[in-house]
Amino acid sequence: MRILITNDDGINAPGLQVLHDIATQIAGDGEVWTVAPAFEQSGVGHCISYTKPMMIAELGPRRFAAEGSPADCVLAGLHDVLDGDLPDLVLSGVNRGNNAAENTLYSGTIGGAMEAALQGVPAIALSQFLGPDNYHAENPFEAAAVHGAVVVRGLLDHADWQSGPYRTFFNVNFPPVSAAAVRGTRVVQQGFRQDTRFTVEPQHSPAGRRFLWIKGGPQHLPTAPGTDVEANLAGFVSVTPMRADLTAHDLISDLRARLEAELPG
């Protein structure tokens, strides 16, 4: 098996080495190729560098850094590094911090997996939830490192990799506990933290100029039963099938009946 890996924490991030180890276990006698951002790209979502070129550099065998987003790196990997010879799988992560609930919408890790799916390649995003039990651990990624290959193999063997116009990809979050404390795996919906919002925090530089820092909200607020954060905080690995289609399908019929009857044409 040939696997392409990327992330949004950057080419030197420890989570990328964890992902390389997971990919190596899955690839067996195959190949693992790395194309990751030269600098951290957290929070860029599915951004692509549409209006400017990006530099790409080979750092070692099958290891490249690109000055772009995770989605850029996937494009570079598929169409330049691998020259159109598509891999069997794209893995994005392992992110330092959760990409569950509303974080999913901002995540460059998710953006990399989404771009792979749009390119017709099976893709999985992997993230390590951090909390009091693992934040200061010698290896905060232990849960992902120990259980990652098992989860990826399970998805490869059992998931429905639908290949319609918006191909399915998968979002995996490992709980904020040690590997031994992981209770299992739950297939769940994307959740929503009711009282968590991104905000801004102003500061002034020594020269008096005003700057704004983007500030996240609490990460350990629970989400509804059967959703990702709720599963993670209970010690379970969460697996959420996703598509890039943003249509609210449940609202189409009612809106059509109400709106089309009122408007001409």
Automatic annotation (TrEMBL):
Catalytically driven reaction(s): a ribonucleoside 5'-phosphate + H2O = a ribonucleoside + phosphate
Q: Which InterPro entries match?
A: SurE (IPR030048), SurE-like_Pase/nucleotidase (IPR002828), SurE-like_sf (IPR036523)
Main location, first listed in the record:
cytoplasm
Limits of the Survival protein SurE-like phosphatase/nucleotidase domain: 3-194
Keyword Nucleotide-binding attached: yes
- Highest rank taxon of the organism: Bacteria
Protein name, UniProt field: 5'-nucleotidase SurE
Arranged from A to Z, the UniProt key words for this protein are: Cytoplasm, Hydrolase, Metal-binding, Nucleotide-binding
Query: Where is it found, in Gene Ontology cellular component terms?
Result: cytoplasm
Q: What are the names of the required cofactors?
A: a divalent metal cation
Looking up Gene3D superfamilies in the UniProt record yields: Survival protein SurE-like phosphatase/nucleotidase
Q: Does the keyword Hydrolase apply?
A: yes
Spell out the family assignment given in the record's similarity comment: Belongs to the SurE nucleotidase family.
As recorded in UniProt, its EC number(s) are 3.1.3.5
